Write the structure tokens for this entry.
Amino acid sequence: MRVLLVTGNLASDLVRESACGTDVLVLDVDVAAFITPEMLCRAGPRGYDLILIPGAITADFRGAERILETKIRLGPKHAIDLLSLLPRLDEVELSTTIPACALLEGKRRQEAMADLERLEAEAPGQLTIRGVKIGGSSRMKVLAEVVDATRLDDGALGKRIRYFEEQGADLIDLGASTDATPSSVRRALQTARAVTALPISIDAVRPDLILAGIEAGADMILSLNAENLPQVGRRVAEEGIPAVVIPGPGPISIEENLERARSYSIQAIADPVLDPPLMGLTCSIERYIRLRRDHPDIPLFFGAGNVTELMDGDGPGANLLLSALAAEVEASLLFTPEHSAKAAGSVHDLAVASRMMLLAKERQTPPKDLGLDLLILKEKRRIQEIAPSQEVVEAGTEHPFQADPAGSFRIFLSEGRIMADNGRITIAGERGRDVLNSLIEQGLVGRLDHAGYLGRELERAEIALALGRSYIQDEPLWQRKVK
């Protein structure tokens, strides 16, 4: 198939470098996105099966297709993406409205999701909890804990559970607070059962709370040890409820407690306990390796939240690495509470990471180029910079403030939306551009510099919303780091 790449002056070198020997037509316009159908028709390229125009173009090229008698489709937005697109042209149905890079990304994701669905359907699990496979070669499942669930009212508890379900949790764990009572445990389970069909566990070590959870229909129990097993072990076994077994109390090992649980014929899930960074993390991984070697038939519980909650660092990369460690020790359950603000999003991170690990194992590759990723603030490929086309004039740094006669606005976030409030009216939206356009359309902005300021602040508010960060007007989203 003969293919022609069309571009403008500024990007011409980058396109040629990424063209893989494909013909390149450079039209007399600096910015490739401003290429028009008339320009292409005047150039009159002939003899091609496909003409790829820049993915940022929004003009309609159907007329040019008829004149040139050649199929014209959108290529990628950035030249560097030609390297991945051109070898796969036969695999992607290109579009006249959607850039090829978006189509290619979508195709990779569709392929990944189809593979995941097949792998999970074919995988044998070591046990099944309310239809969810645990262990075996099935995907690691994410258990999201609602901390102090017994203290929350029904509305707050339901909201938290629905949030975790939306984020990709496979099971919900209800954490019993220190002042929990059997009746509060039963109420929490009843509320949870009303809002989700996911398996629900009760997280407690007190025997009376565990028994209350069993009576209320818990699907799994956290956590059994040498102290509570004599009082609840027989009941757990009779109900056939899987239970997470932990070490302790004191020096009693996980192996000893697993033997106790086995004596009751309990379906055990072993938690060797993942220790926090610099407090035994490496040694705890060694415990996981030993337990997997000695007890290959027992699913492993991996408390990723023990690490992410106890270090000041961004979560996605940490959760991805923890998931890789969990996959190497063949863990079955990834556990996190999202208790602190810095750990927000951990359920989503682990849900994505668990899928990446399953795909990577199947394809026998590191967890990259899978169609799924956890790149949030980093980028996979840096887009090459374009040199300025003319003399550069340095921007001034001193600009005297002049109040807008139309008034000022307070910008803030509320209930997942951006708010712009001038004391008389509040404009709300999920995108900064929508809020700004509405302010201008309603005549609420009177100066260009004020419009520019509002645009900057609304965009920062939108970024904060997307990242789950707090937003305060005129303050940076994050502190500049000392070099």
Summary: Residues 100-122 form the longest helix (23 residues). The first strand starts at residue 3 and ends at 7. The two ends are 51 Å apart (CA to CA).
